Structure formats: C-alpha cells, structure tokens
Amino acid sequence: MSFRFDANKVAQATAYMLKSMNEKRHNFMALLKMLYIADRQSLKETGFPITGDTYAAMKHGPVLSRTYDLMKTSEDWPEKDSEERLWTEHFRRDNCDLCLLRDPGSGELSEYEMEKLQDVCRRFGARDRFELADFTHTFPEWKKNDPGDSSVTIELTDLLDAVDRGNDIEAILQSAREDRYFSSLFAGR
Questions:
Q1: For a Cys staple, 38 with which of 8, 11, 114, 120, CB 3.0–4.6 Å?
Q2: Cβ–Cβ < 8 Å for 63, 31
Q3: What does pTM read for this prediction?
Q4: Would residue 2 count as lying in a domain?
C-alpha cells in the first residue's frame, strides 16, 4: 500500500530543493537521498509523505522508486510516458547531475512541505552522495531490507515503524487508500 504518486508534485519538490540551495544543478543521487529524507520526516511528523512515491532499498541506501526512474529518464528516449515527458520538460541529466531547465512552480506544495524541503537542504545540501548514502544506511527500514547488490521494496509499514509511527499504521494506511481512491475518481478530468 502506498499513497498516490504525483510526478508534477515531485518535479516541483525537486526544483524547490535546487532553488533552496541556489543551484540549477546538483548530483541526482544526492537530490534523491534528500527527497527521501524529506518524505521520511514528513511521514514521521504528519503521517503523510510529500511525494507519495514507493520506497526501495538499494546498495547505496533507500530511494524513492518512481522518482529514481524519472531522474534516469533521458530526453532522447524515443517513447516517453506522460510522467517522463513532464520530467524532461523541466530537467535533464548531465552525467551525474540533474539540471533544472524550467521551473515547474510550487503550487502543489504546502507551506509545511516547502519548509521541510528547505530544512533538509539546509541540513544535508552540502553533503556529497556518498555521505548521504552512508547516513541513510543507518535507517532501520534500510537495515531491515538490506538488498546487498540488488533492490528490495521497503514496505510503508517498515518505514512507519522506523519513524515511530507503528501505533498509527492502520490509520495511515486507511489515509493512503482514501488518497488513492479519491484521486482515481478525478483522474482524467
């Protein structure tokens, strides 16, 4: 079970982080780690993630699965889905950096989410990708799902337990179901 993924909101969150660090480019893996940390903190504090993404444990720590796929998207791929097209309108990869081409705005982000993204950038923005990988290796949800050289899904329940929201799991999962249900009612409108 997961919350509804919104590629537009993820693009806004990513751009907001770059702007918070006064940068137009940053190492994509470091950005991915910082987005994961922000999602994790939001789940801990509010019971809701910022991105709605699913989570995976990988060799270099936990990641946001669909966001990782979008960050790997290349503008020269012949066929892209709507999320990939949206992504390549705003970002491009330059080796290990993600570059902001066009600001997607921040209309999908709440004040709390923008503050959380800024806070994570302030605390972690100067760290390189390897320092961030080492830091995220300390997270209980990654340790529980240590993938070795592979990739393993981190269940939302594992993450909630890790951030001391274990007593709220049923209520949070119900919120995720409702979030997905209501978004499906308005899909395509």
A1: 120
A2: no
A3: 0.93
A4: no
